Amino acid sequence: MSRLVVLALASASLLGCVDQPNLSSTGGISFEEFKARMYREPSTGLYIIDWDTVVSGDDALREVWESTQQGALAVYSINGQDIVWSATQKKQLTYCISNTFGANKQAVIAAMTAASDTGWEKLADVNFTYVPGQDANCTAQNTNVMFDVNPVNANGQYLARSFFPNSPRSERNVLIDNTAFQPGGTGGISLGNILAHELGHTLGFRHEHIRPEANATQCAEDNQFRGLTTYDSASVMHYPQCNGTSTTLAFTQKDKDGVVLLYGAPINNPSPMAQVTAPANGATVGTSFDVEAQIVDTDLVKAELSIDGTLTSTLNTAPFTFHVTNLAVGAHTLEIKATDGAGQATTQTINVTVAANGGGGGNGSGSGTGSGTGSGGDDANGLGDDVYGGCSAAGGSSAGLALLVGLVGLARRRRR
Ligand SMILES: [Zn+2]
Questions:
Q1: How far apart, in whole angstroms, are the C-alpha atoms of residue 41 and residue 47?
Q2: Taking a C-beta distance cutoff of 8 angstroms, is the pair 345, 253 a contact?
Q3: How far is the C-alpha of 156 from the C-alpha of 178, rounded, in Å?
Q4: Ligand 1 midpoint to CA 136 (Å)
Q5: Ligand 1 centre from 201 Cα, in Å?
Q6: What is each CA distance from 309 to 312, 330, 337, 387, in whole angstroms?
Q7: 101 alpha carbon to ligand 1 midpoint, in Å?
Q8: Contact, 195 vs 114, CB < 8 A?
Q9: What CATH code would you report for 273-412?
Q10: Residue ranges of the domains in the chain?
């Protein structure tokens, strides 16, 4: 690597100093672990530390714990206050990628995905969400996203730069210099890992090499940080040229440990559960009818109805009742697609036949009207039974989640 400074300093100017925390045997443990080790006086509820000193309440104890933390990732901290996202914000880190990247845009999309979906989100309970609908207007003024990703001409002064959680919207940008796209321009570090480093800043992490253990006086910044784990010379947040030991900036175990201390462990987020409840698969319906779906998910973004492969309607919240009007007589395919905040999609497809006077109005209300007579909008086979065949269910981008298709007809099923 010919250039000394290949990675960006965060945009915020980091001035001022706070006292450095002391190193102790409790460095690198979470507050909950620290608290569990403390003796609490049964009669008063006071914590007793250092043999004979009382500490009243969890807030005061947290201050004691913070004073002992020296450790891998270092979070931006000013006067004892961590600069981090709230529990709500950490799940809503939305961004756009400017169309002005031109031919490089696809590479940026792939790298951002590597840095977020298969990067930080695999390590901790945070969620970055790409919003392509804002790409055409992906500026620092766009308040429909938390931050924007844009090209910059920094003449190679840096490869990329980002921001901290306390940055105002106008400064919440991830900017990528042209050199980051040039083979050999990054010292062998992938664009995905460069952006993983930048997204680390957006989560509140300082450069790991500003910790005294790095002994990197050539890379000095300031002391506004709190160590979360012990020093990690190979951290994604450690510049290689500042006495770092990683030339790839790949994530380390300590990176995971540190981000989990700050934001919690990742929560398993399965793709949405989506079932069409009406009409029944194979039903004969009238030209106008409702398609009803039952969708269960913790971070659902949208539910879409497509008819014969064409998107016709989108709903964002329950009830998921799609009104279909004046559909042509004949056979049709109806697909429901549910998409969550992680971009995971579940689809279910049913087939119906539209008859001019079909289905007795065929509104497919799912209210258990199946009379077994073969009319009234029930299954064409008149059995009012479980639905077999013709349905498909699949997990989208994630490992294929197979839903139990046989459950679709359950609500309509008669007890016998
Ligand atoms: Zn940096």
A1: 6
A2: no
A3: 8
A4: 27
A5: 7
A6: 9, 15, 11, 22
A7: 21
A8: yes
A9: 2.60.40.10
A10: 31-68, 89-263, 273-412
Q: Do domains 89-263 and 273-412 have the same CATH topology?
A: no
Task: Report yes or no: 149 and 96 within 8 Å, Cβ to Cβ.
Answer: yes
CATH topology of domain 89-263: Collagenase (Catalytic Domain) (3.40.390)
249 CA to middle of ligand 1, Å? 11
Ligand 1 centre distance from Cα of residue 299 (Å): 31
pLDDT tens readout for residues 159-187 = 999 999 999 999 999 999 999 998 788 88
**Angle in degrees, CA 264, 267, 270, rounded to 5:** 165
In this prediction, does ipTM exceed 0.95? yes
pLDDT at 225 over 50: yes
Task: State the distance from the centre of ligand 1 to the C-alpha of 10, rounded, in angstroms.
Answer: 6
H or E segment and range at residue 257: helix 253-263
Q: What pLDDT score does 342 carry?
A: 78
The helix (run of H) or strand (run of E) holding residue 259 is helix 253-263
Q: Are 196 and 119 in contact (CB under 8 A)?
A: yes
* Distance between Cα 321 and ligand 1 center (Å): 48
Cα of 209 from ligand 1 centre, angstroms: 10
* CA-to-CA separations, 19 to 23, 201, 205, 393, 399, in angstroms, rounded: 12, 22, 18, 57, 48
Residue 149 has φ and ψ, to the nearest 5°, of -115, 120
CA of 246 to the centre of ligand 1 (A): 14
Residue with tokens 């570090």, as numbered in its chain:
189
Give tens-digit pLDDT for 7-56.
Answer: 333 332 222 222 222 223 445 556 677 788 777 777 777 777 655 666 77
Residue type present at position 213: E
Summarize pLDDT for 92-140 with one digit per residue, the tens.
999 999 999 999 999 999 999 999 999 999 999 999 999 999 999 999 9
Comparing CA positions, the residue from 365, 390, 361, 357 lying closest to residue 376 is 361
pLDDT for 359 equals 55
CA of 275 to the centre of ligand 1 (A): 45
Please state, in angstroms and as integers, the Cα–Cα distance from residue 232 to each residue in 70, 227, 249, 254, following that order. Answer: 11, 10, 12, 7
- Dihedral (Cα; 183, 186, 192, 197), 10-degree rounding: -170
